[in-house]
Amino acid sequence: MQPPAGSQVSRVPAQRTPPEHSAPPAPLPVPQRPPRRLRTVLTVVAGVLALLCVGGGITGYVLYERAATPDRSAPDVVVVSYLQATFVARDDNRAKLFTCAGLLPSVDEFRNQMVSRERQLDAVFSINIEDVRVTTTGESSAVVRAVVRRSATVDGVQQSLADAWRFEVVDQKEGWRVCSGERLQ
Prior knowledge:
The chain has 185 residues and is an alpha+beta fold. The chain has 4 helices and 4 strands. It has a 4-stranded antiparallel β-sheet, with helices on one face. The longest helix has 33 residues, at 36-68. The chain is rod-shaped and about 150 Å long.
């Protein structure tokens, strides 16, 4: 249909909006947050595990310190520990932990004689520390007497020798220490 003549309607074709300017697309649904309960549970579990790890580490350290620190609480304890380190374990470094200033020459000489005798007899001595007696000589000093018994089977015969020893011990800051030792005749 044509508009009547003289009308003010122009003959401009109808304008359409370009497709890119059409109505906005429907909004996407907003993603929902995961439930906060899961996050709370994971945080609590992580915290408990962290506390268990820290507690386990501290417990391990304390137990290691107790096991590694030598017992120097009493004169007889330190002498027995020193003799076991020297004659049984034959560990000079461990033995030094129980002495005032390094190894004791008379005890080391006796141990060397004992090792030499073991080689000669082709036997291994069993060492027992017996009859340990403490005599207090002062507030921080004492004398400890002990018997070192060496036993072995040589040519099918059980043999045993006992040697009496006298040790002077001193109470230092870290506990008792063996300062000298002599074999008694």
